[in-house]
Amino acid sequence: MRKIFKNKFLILSLGFIALPLILSTYYVNILSLFLIMGILALSLDLIWGYTGILSFGQGAFFGLGGYTYAITAMNLMCNVEIRYLSHYTVINQGGTTYIPILLGILLPVILATVLGYFLFYARVSGVYFCIITLSLTLILQQITMQLVEHQIGNIPLGGFNGITYVPRISIGIPLLFYYSLDGPNHFYYFVLFCSVLSLIICKKICNSPFGSILTAIRDNEIRTESFGYDIRKYKMIVFAISGALAGLSGLLYCSWGSFISPWAFDFFLSAETIIWVLIGGKGTLIGAFVGAFLTQFLENLLSDILIYYWLLIMGVVFIVIVLLFPKGIMGIIYGLKRSNLKSS
Predict the structure, then answer these.
(1) Which end of the chain has fewer CB atoms within 10 angstroms, the N or the C?
(2) Structure confidence at residue 30 (pLDDT)
(3) pTM over 0.70, yes/no
(4) How far apart are CA 180 and CA 186, in angstroms?
(5) How far apart are CA 194 and CA 113, in angstroms?
(6) Which H, E and C letters describe the chain, residue by residue?
C-alpha cells in the first residue's frame, strides 16, 4: 500500500509540475492561490482530523503570518515615502526574504503555543475552545482595522485598506545575489514545493508514535491520559505545528497578491476552511487540498455563470455533500479501496 501511495503521489506531483506548461498565466496564478488555501486547510485537518480539536482560529495565524511577512519584508527591503496615512510610495531595494518568511512562521507558532498553553492546561475544550479561538480572530481583525494612523517601522498599517506593494518572495544567497519570484510560474513552483513539503511533514507526523498518541487523544482523551500521557502537552505541540502551517499559508498569500488586509482575519475564511476539510475528508490530509481545490474551483466557475445566485448554489452543494458523504471525498475513495481489497 505504501508503494502504491508513493507512486500515485509521484504521478500527481509530476502532473502539477507540468501544469504551468499548458495553462495560461491567469490559471497558474489561480492554482497558486488554491495551493496556498490547501495549506491552510491542511493546518486545520492536522488538529481537527487527527486530534479532534476544532479551531475557528486558523484565520488568526493566517493573518498574523501575512502581516508579519509584509511588515518585515517592506522594512528590510523597501524605501517607503509616506505622503498621507496609508498613501505612500515604495521603492523595492531588493534582497532575500528568508527573515520575513521565518518570522511569518515563528510568530504564529508563538501565538499558538501561548494560547494552547493557557487553554489546554486550563482544560478548555469543545465549544468553549471554538468560541475563544473565534474571539481571538475577530479581535485581531478589529485591531488591524482600527490601526489607520499607526505604523511599524516605516510601514503604515493602513487600517481597513491594509498593506500594499509587499515584495514577492526572493531566494538566493544573502549579500551576494537574490532572485525574486515575480513570474507566475516561478512563484507557483515555490508554492507547490511548500505544499508538498507540508503534506509530507504532516504525513510523517501522523504515521509516527506521536501521531498515534494524537489519534488516541481524538478517540478517548481520558483513556489516553490514564496511560500516563500528558495530553495537554501533545495538544499544545500539534496546535503550534498547525499555527506554523497557517502562518506559512498567510505569508504565501501575502506574497501572492503583494497585499494583506484585515480580511485575512475574517470569520468567513476560518469557517470556509472547516468546509474545505469536511468536503475533502477529515483526517485524510490530502483531503484538505482536495476540498480546497474543489470548493474554490466551483466558486470561481459559478460566480462567473451565476452572478447573483452562486452563493445559494454553493450552499446547497455543501449541505448535500456533508449530509450524504460525511467522510468526504477522500473518505469515499479510501472506503472503496478497502472494499476492493477485501473482495479480492
Answers:
(1) C
(2) 92
(3) yes
(4) 9
(5) 22
(6) CHHHHHHHHHHHHHHHHHHHHCCCHHHHHHHHHHHHHHHHHHHHHHHHCCCCCCCCCHHHHHHHHHHHHHHHHHHHHEEEEEEECCEEEEEECCCCCHHHHHHHHHHHHHHHHHHHHHHHHCCCCHHHHHHHHHHHHHHHHHHHHHCCCCEECCEECCHHHCEECCCCCEEEECCCEEEECCCHHHHHHHHHHHHHHHHHHHHHHHCCHHHHHHHHHHHCHHHHHHCCCCHHHHHHHHHHHHHHHHHHHHHHHHHHHCEECHHHHCHHHHHHHHHHHHHHCCCCCHHHHHHHHHHHHHHHHHHHHCCCCHHHHHHHHHHHHHHHCCCHHHHHHHHHHHHHHHHC
At residue 289, the pLDDT reads 92
In tens, the pLDDT along 266-308 reads 888 888 899 899 888 888 888 899 999 988 888 888 777 777 7
Identify the pLDDT of residue 1. 45
* Residue 137 identity: T
Task: Give tens-digit pLDDT for 105-116.
Answer: 999 999 999 999
Give me the amino acid identity at 83.
Answer: R
